[in-house]
Structure formats: C-alpha cells, structure tokens
Design goal:
Blueprint (H helix, E strand, L loop, with lengths): L1 H21 L6 H21 L5 H23 L6 H19 L1
C-alpha cells in the first residue's frame, strides 16, 4: 500500500507542477487553486507513504516521478524541446529510481 500512495503522490506532483506553470505567476485563479489542492494531496500522500518507507527511498521516488512526469508533459503538451541531452538526463533519473528501489 505505501508504494501505491507514493505513486499517487508523485502523480499529484506532476499535476501541481504543470498547474504552477499555468498560473502565470499566480495571477490566474483556477490553475492556482488546482496547484494548491494538488500540492496538499501530494504532500499528504507522501507523508502517509513515509510511515512505512525509508525517507531517502520515498523522497527520491516521489521527486523522480514528478521530474520525469513534468518533463514528459512539457514535451507532449507544452511544446518544450526534446533534445538528446534532455532525454539522457531523464534516462539517468529513471535509472536512479530503479537503483534506489532495488537498494
């Protein structure tokens, strides 16, 4: 169960990061509200997952899901560049997540 909570916490991290981009410096109400709700949910689920998972593992996986997810959303929906260097960085993050999980 803690891994499922952590997965959803990471998915909510993607939501709040994308919503933050859409707030235009916190000048748009709905993206700002979505960001706030997603942040609270993400932190809450992370905290619940940390009851059973080690801090380093939980935090690394959570930030990794958010980073790679935001990277993917940026490319697919926001027109951000897909370059070999950025792909390499994402691969390194995912590799680190796998190694952290195995450790």
């Amino acid at each position: 169960m803690p891994w499922i909570l952590l997965l959803f916490a990471g998915l909510l991290e993607i939501v709040w990061a994308v919503a933050m981009k859409q707030t235009a410096g916190f000048t748009r109400l709905w993206p700002t509200a979505i960001m706030g709700v997603a942040m609270i949910g993400s932190f809450g689920l992370l905290a619940m997952a940390m009851r059973e998972l080690p801090l380093g593992t939980a935090y690394t996986i959570w930030t990794g899901i958010g980073a790679v997810g935001a990277f993917t959303v940026g490319i697919l929906f926001l027109g951000e560049a897909l370059t070999p260097m950025r792909i390499g960085a994402a691969v390194l993050i995912v590799t680190g997540l796998v190694v952290m999980k195995l450790a």
